[in-house]
Write a structure and sequence with these properties.
The protein has helices spanning 2-18, 22-29, 44-51, 53-72, 74-82, 103-121, 134-144, 146-163, 166-184, 189-204, 207-215. By secondary structure, it is an all-alpha fold. It has one domain (2-215). The termini are far apart.
């Protein structure tokens, strides 16, 4: 029972953290409904096009921070909040959430990461319509597999320089990240599976971008979107 409670509390806390619609809130503070301009997405790319680089970078960093905090800080906080009410839970962890996490600790952190991304992508505050999860996924893997994230970031930058499309760069990174996780940590099957699922989800969330790329209407990097423009 205590483990189930810890799992459920971790899931709920991670989802609610991830569900904070940063781009929407930043735009709303400027009197703009970001869902009605540009691509209609609440993520950092649309925020940068609609609100400018400083606001876009802020949204990017906060969205990434949600994923990082969900993995690094939430699980031990939840455990330390619930475990004292069940003294016999101390047998589950010799030293909870230390530098070399146990398999059980890894499950808590991975589950927290998954639900932080789901919270961002399907936020309950905006009728379960959110972002695409690229920045939040990056925050998750900054906590769980930083070297794999670095490899994916290099691919992102190269793809962006070559194509000038953020969507192409994001989808390239979504493919590169799970590949890097499998190559660099082949012994961690759980992490590899989760990276693959989150990568596939990120590509799925870019289906609108794929349609615009095929139609030749996708916006390139640096193109400013009018706040009075129609949603694409």
């Amino acid at each position: 029972m205590p483990l189930i409670l810890i799992y459920l509390a971790t899931v709920l806390a991670a989802y609610l953290l991830g569900s904070i619609p940063t781009g929407y809130l930043v735009a709303k503070a400027k009197g703009i409904d970001i869902r009605s301009v540009g691509s209609g997405n609440i993520g950092a790319t649309n925020a940068m096009r609609v609100l400018g680089k400083p606001a876009g970078i802020f949204v990017l960093l906060i969205d990434a921070l949600k994923g990082f905090v969900a993995c690094k800080i939430l699980p031990p906080l939840v455990f330390n909040w619930i475990a004292p009410h069940f003294p016999y839970t101390t047998g589950y962890f010799d030293a909870p959430f230390n530098v070399q996490p146990t398999d059980l600790e890894m499950k808590f952190t991975v589950i927290a990461g998954i639900f932080a991304v789901l919270g961002h992508n399907y936020t309950c505050w905006l009728r379960f319509k959110g972002g695409k999860g690229i920045a939040t996924t990056a925050g998750v893997f900054l906590a769980l597999a930083p070297w794999a994230l670095l490899a994916a970031l290099i691919i992102f930058i190269l793809a962006l320089l070559l194509t000038k499309y953020v969507s192409v760069a994001s989808m390239s990174a979504a493919i590169a990240l799970p590949a890097a996780v499998w190559i660099m940590t082949p012994q961690n099957v759980l992490l590899g599976v989760v990276a693959t699922v989150l990568g596939a989800l990120a590509i799925y969330k870019h289906k609108g971008n794929l349609q615009r790329l095929i139609a030749g209407t996708e916006s390139r990097l640096g193109k400013k979107t009018s706040t009075t423009g129609e949603t694409k």
